[in-house]
Write a structure and sequence with these properties.
The chain is mostly beta strands. The protein has 2 helices and 13 strands, in the order E-E-H-E-E-E-E-E-E-E-H-E-E-E-E. 12% of the residues lie in helices and 41% in strands. Strand 1 and strand 2 form a beta hairpin. The chain is globular. The N terminus is likely disordered.
């Protein structure tokens, strides 16, 4: 399915959804009273009627991420070290999501994944903080003091990580 962009070209709808979710997330988050850097986060999905991907966990290496049925959109993906506030919006209309932050020691290494539970082992992955289960349309915030490095933000509701619901984040 396609839609027309502002200059008359056609764009696939699957490319529009994450951008629309981020725009809605930024608009709904409103002005922050947080110190340091604010990162607006939108947790999105294509709805429960879409077939959920099952093999799109981190790292992506050769995977077709256009098939992701869920994801995380950020207002920025690189910020300066220090106090970071993640203002999170669950843009879904039907599904509970969460956002967990871990530091990646090796950005090419898979996270410890429990296939029986369909979740990442948060403690072994290096859980730094989270915005727990957000109902559709709800918001939450997480403030962390982060050092330079590579980080991963992901949803650990069973099945969501492998559906492509993760994104990398860099602290300089």
């Amino acid at each position: 399915m396609f839609t027309r962009n502002s200059i008359g070209g056609l764009l696939p709808i699957r490319l529009i959804l994450p951008v629309a979710a981020l725009v809605i997330g930024v608009a709904m988050a409103g002005p922050s009273r947080a110190g340091g850097t604010v990162v607006n986060v939108s947790l999105w999905d294509k709805g429960t009627s879409m077939e959920q991907a099952t093999d799109l966990g981190f790292p992506a290496g050769g995977k077709d991420m256009s098939k992701a049925s869920m994801g995380i959109a950020l207002s920025v993906d690189t910020v300066k070290a220090g106090e970071i506030t993640f203002e999170v919006l669950n843009s879904s209309k039907e599904t509970i999501h969460e956002m967990i932050v871990v530091r990646l020691k090796d950005p090419k290494k898979e996270l410890p994944y429990d296939s029986g539970a369909s979740t990442v082992d948060e403690e072994r992955a290096g859980h730094l903080g989270e915005v727990s289960e957000l109902e559709p349309g709800k918001t939450g915030a997480l403030r962390l003091d982060l050092k330079p490095g590579n980080y991963l933000l992901f949803c650990n509701i069973p099945g969501h990580f492998m559906a492509g619901m993760w994104t990398s984040f860099t602290i300089k």
